[in-house]
Specification:
Layout lengths: L1 E6 L2 E4 L4 E9 L1 E12 L6 E6 L5 E3 L7 E6 L4 E6 L8 E11 L4 E5 L3 E6 L1
Parallel strand pairs: 2-11
Antiparallel strand pairs: 1-3, 3-8, 4-5, 4-9, 5-6, 7-8, 9-10, 9-11
Length: 120
């Protein structure tokens, strides 16, 4: 099994910053792509930022210039640095990892989600 554990969410005032962390553990041979998604009430889950194993990154338009995705491969951890937060960033944030397992399957795994609330 593979488990993704997220941390770092919470309540912050507009203009503030948070850093989300997501650590993968379990039967991992290799982590390929990782990404952060978010889902607000009444909305579809959307991609916020993605990172490939080769180091390429991609951001939603709403996140560009404010959010930074990074990863520590030695720790099987991906981070999302969130700056200049806005109330519209309020959502449950989910980590996703594209994992090649030790039994040679390739599967997407999701974290449990962490709530980010930005007050005005």
């Amino acid at each position: 099994q593979v488990q993704l554990v997220e941390s770092g969410g919470g309540l912050v005032q507009a203009g503030g910053s948070l850093r989300l962390s997501c650590r993968a553990s379990g039967s991992i041979f290799r982590i390929n792509n990782m990404g952060w998604y978010r889902q607000a009430p009444g909305k579809q889950r959307e991609l916020v930022a993605a990172s490939t194993s080769g180091g390429s990154t991609n951001y939603a338009d709403s996140a560009k210039g404010r959010f930074t995705i990074s990863r520590d491969n030695a720790k099987n951890t991906v981070y999302l640095e969130m700056n200049s937060l806005k109330p519209e960033d309020t959502a449950v944030y989910y980590c996703k990892a594209d994992v090649t397992t030790t039994w040679a399957t390739r599967v997407d795994y999701w974290g449990q989600g962490t709530q980010v609330t930005v007050s005005s």
